[in-house]
Amino acid sequence: MAAVVDAKGVIAVDDPPITAVLGNPEAVFGVHSVIGTSSNTAGAMTTGEWLVGEDGRIAYGALCVFIDTAIGSPAVAHRPRNAWAVTTDLSITFCGAPVVDGSDLRSSSRTIFRDERSAVSDGEIVTFGGDVVAKAVERVVFTLDQSISNAQTAPEAIDRGSGNVITLLGGRCRSDASVLDVGRLCLNPAGSLHGGVAAFMSERAATATVDTCTDGLTPTLLQMSYIRPGRADSRLVFRCLPLHVGRNSAVVRVESRTSDDRLCTVASVSYHRR
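That's the Thioesterase domain-containing protein sequence above. Prediction below.
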């Protein structure tokens, strides 16, 4: 691995190893491997019933924890010592439906930009047979925020029961507003809501809204902006604003807010008829 010296004379590894922490959110969604370096990261996620919504269709948001962890990890690897990497933006293009047969989905990702304050990585998710399921780009910023604590713990043994992941995570999904009680299965290593769980809930809330107006539309693009963290043991409400719902396409804006109306995330979800 190459090394570089920055303006302050600090030696840094130019292609640092991945140090992804696979916690409870990853266990819930079947993510079991994220390895490599910032220039070449590989991940794996087992498919299962948690990828299927209550309507029997693929729940594309169930890919978001895998995407956030696996495709974001190359950018996170560049964080300075004693600093945290915080996701600010995540964009996912859903290309095709995964096969839910117990086989693995694979990820390939790499850093495409970095400086002293931030980094950007991109990558793709493919089936075992090589078909592209999703493409994503993620941006993180580095912070020395002392209010962030390391809540890293070993993942629990997850009993998915009926396979209703929303209920397992502490959520309820409705067309008017969806709610998530941020419990231990939702937390990232910093002790706040995992960005992939926030994206999952945003997609599920938006899809519930679209499905009340029309049927047969599939999410094709999810864009997330992370404003502030969802704190452990808090309640977030995901409210949807349909910007357009037509026969062949739809666009929905989703905001998550705390019980005191503080904005946490903003999502835009686009739909098309495949």
